[in-house]
Amino acid sequence: MKIFVARLAGTPVFDPAGDQIGRVRDVVVGLLIGRRPNVHGLVVEVQPRRRVFLPITRVRRIESGSVVFTGRLNMRRFEQRATETLVIGEMLDMTVHVDDEPMTVYDVAMEEVRPSTWEITKVAVHKGRRRERRVVDWREASGFDTLQKDQGAAGLIASFATLRAADMASALHALPSKRRVEIARALADDRLADVLEELPPGDQIGILGTLEPERAADVLEEMGPDDAADLLHDLPEQQAAQLLALMEPQEAAPVRRLLTYPDDTAGGMMTSEPVILPPTATVAEALAHIRQKDLSPAVAAQVYVTRPPTETPTGRYLGVSHFQRLLREPPSTLVGNAIDSSIDPIRPDLRLPDVTSYLANYNLLAAPVVDELGRLVGAVTVDDVLDHLLPENWREGAAHDD
């Protein structure tokens, strides 16, 4: 049975007891001159964002929607050897020659040739604007052993299409820097913005630095203002000022405001785009707003009620209405009549330990941030706080390996 590797990306991996322990992120092979590549094993991502190696000899079966293995999984972090190649990360989008014609690889197939022995047997390629597709034997394609400057990214992006932004960020982080940049440059602005928000600062800075300044500014505009501010804060001052100047004024304004606050304060952590409505809005309108799929659960957990204008910095802050309270009220009820008056707002200069205590004491997912003029300037969510409490390299997996 042939297994096309790109289709394996994201497939759940189950242990002998039937418990899911992770998902397939890549396939590791060894390239051999004059022979079909041997499959060494699978790269499996387990929580928290750790990539480990599953030898192919431990794989009991691969079927639609699952990979099942036997024995125990070594949780040591996967490290690619110099003699190994990642199929999804490095082979897809390569230019190879078939019948002396250049073609682009969009998938490869592996096959169990003997019990517990798998080889790469087929290569799926396309050519031309019409993308005429062919599946050829591995020996018919040449060029896999050639270093390529402009490899392209369409095939790898297609294999990542169904991944959540956090999972795609993890996949990008694990790629060689050249491939990471190729993929990032080929992503649409909004998708790249979502992925950048989930990458470690070093990767963010490295990718942003490879983009034309105008493109980098466009991507920053697609990011949440708090994430854009955090990224700009890590850049050299001159580069940050250049990118801010290239952003649309209305997109740059909230980012500039956030940059005025110290990083470890409520103002430095908050999002400036919570759900805000006037007191005359109805519960039905409020529920429609928090149903937006692009809102995180923490942001969608409450609606902030203010006098107009309802964009930060708002008119006078009136209070917060929680999601559960909104569900209990008739749809025609005004949100001004569904305010929780027991929750006091916090000031932008409140430090991280105090913000953490505030959220914990009141069992809140988010807290309103109000300035000295009584205006809502943003909201601190529990995920904002976690970002600042966790080690700086938490997005790269565990801080240390045992």
| Count of domain modules | 3
CATH class of the largest domain: Mainly Beta
- Give a quick account of the main beta sheet: strands, pairing sense, barrel closure: 7 strands, mixed
Average predicted confidence as pLDDT: 91
Quickly give the structural class: alpha+beta
**Percentage of residues in DSSP E strands:** 25-35%
CATH third-level topology of the largest domain: SH3 type barrels
User: Termini, distance in Å?
Assistant: 38 Å
Radius of gyration: 25 Å
Question: In CATH, what is the homologous superfamily of the largest domain?
Answer: PRC-barrel domain
Q: Helix count, per DSSP?
A: 15
* Second-tier CATH architecture of the largest domain: Roll
Shape: elongated
Strand element count: 18
What fraction, in percent, of the residue positions are helical?
A: 25-40%
- Outline the low-pLDDT stretches: 398-402
Describe the structure using short key phrases.
3 domains, SH3 type barrels, disordered C terminus, MgtE N-terminal fold, 27% strand, six-stranded antiparallel β-sheet, alpha+beta
Question: Mind explaining what this structure looks like?
Answer:
- The chain is α+β, with helices and mostly antiparallel strands and 402 residues long.
- It folds into three domains: 141 residues, PRC-barrel domain (SH3 type barrels), CATH 2.30.30; 73 residues, Alpha Horseshoe (MgtE N-terminal fold); 112 residues, CBS-domain.
- It is built from 15 helices and 18 strands.
- The strands form four sheets. Strands 2, 3, 4, 5, 6, 7 and 8 form a seven-stranded mixed sheet that branches.
- Strand 3 and strand 4 form a beta hairpin.
- Helix 14 packs across helix 15.
- The longest helix is centred in the middle third of the chain and has 11 residues.
- It starts with a strand and ends in a 13-residue tail after the last helix.
- The relative contact order is 0.09.
- The C terminus is likely disordered.
- InterPro entries: CBS_dom (IPR000644), CBS_dom_sf (IPR046342), Mg_transptr_MgtE_intracell_dom (IPR006668), MgtE_N_sf (IPR038076), MgtE_transporter (IPR006669), PRC_barrel-like_sf (IPR011033), SH3_actinomycetes (IPR058838).
- Keywords: CBS domain.
- This is Mg/Co/Ni transporter MgtE (Contains CBS domain).
